[in-house]
Amino acid sequence: xxxxxxxxxxxxxxxxxxxxxxxxxxxxxxxxxxxxxxxxxxxxxxxxxxxxxxxxxxxxxxxxxxxxxxxxxxxxxxxxxxxxxxxxxxxxxxxxxxxxxxxxxxxxxxxxxxxxxxxxxxxxxxxxxxxxxxxxxxxxxxxxxxxxxxxxxxxxxxxxxxxxxxxxxxxxxxxxxxxxxxxxxxxxxxxxxxxxxxxxxxxxx
Length: 205
Prior knowledge:
205 residues, alpha+beta
């Protein structure tokens, strides 16, 4: 019974349209993504900057007539939902043009279309069977697990990047302190040596 329920869930996954990706956005650069959608189709966008600079980026979304549907500046993360009013190509752009020397790593999740019923005639008036109820329950739990895994993966990437940045700064600081101590040590030795040289000269005189 569990195998059949899992099969229902796996088959349902293919009915959901979406794109999930992580990309690098160089400094002084802009990247856009295009998706052709039908009219009256709902789409959802989630993005988060997981590395680079102050962890912020500009984002805007336009419709086929270049009307701006969403426009936010220097956001670390955000979500946006919209239902299309016309058929055509919709554009999602991320801009790092305000940064002159730091790149950004951005996570993007783009979903569109309504979720199809897991079971045919699910909205009928009659009660669902035990098999159907189990299938729906497993499907809902798997969606929660997938969302949690995405959240933890983003947190892990963000924390790893910050830890690597701190490690790099600690290494540079340690190297700087080592060089400074070496220079001070050499300076002290040369200063002491100069004292003894002066004493020898005065004694000879």
